Amino acid sequence: MVTRLVADLLGELNLNVREIHSRKPQSYKTRVSDEFRKSKGLILVTSDVSARGVDYPDVTLVVRVGLPADRE
């Protein structure tokens, strides 16, 4: 998964990073999402699973990696 690769690369730079993608259990996604909302300086690497209807207040930068599977 691209998210794992990007998270691993950022982790090698000693950055505080978490990842979310569709293969992770919902309980994990919820926990990481909550942690991201509460933290400062945490980098969240996610697939489009988190791009649909999820709001993260005070996020100032979003970098999209990869392309969606279809045009929808």
C-alpha geometry: globular
Report the radius of gyration as a whole number of Å: 12 Å
Order of helices and strands: HEHE
Tell me the structural class: alpha+beta
Total number of beta strands: 2
Q: Quote the distance from N terminus to C terminus.
A: 20 Å
Return the average pLDDT rounded to an integer. Answer: 83
**Low-pLDDT runs:** none
Strand percentage lies at: 5-15%
Number of helical runs? Answer: 2
Count up the domains: 1
- Proportion in helices: 25-40%
Strand order of the largest sheet: 1-2
Biggest beta sheet attributes: 2 strands, parallel
Can you put this structure into words, describing what you see?
Belongs to the DEAD box helicase family. It catalyses: ATP + H2O = ADP + phosphate + H(+). The chain is of the alpha+beta class and 72 residues long. It has one domain. The chain contains 2 helices and 2 strands; from the N terminus they run αβαβ. Strand 1, helix 2 and strand 2 form a beta-alpha-beta unit. The protein is globular. The mean pLDDT is 83.
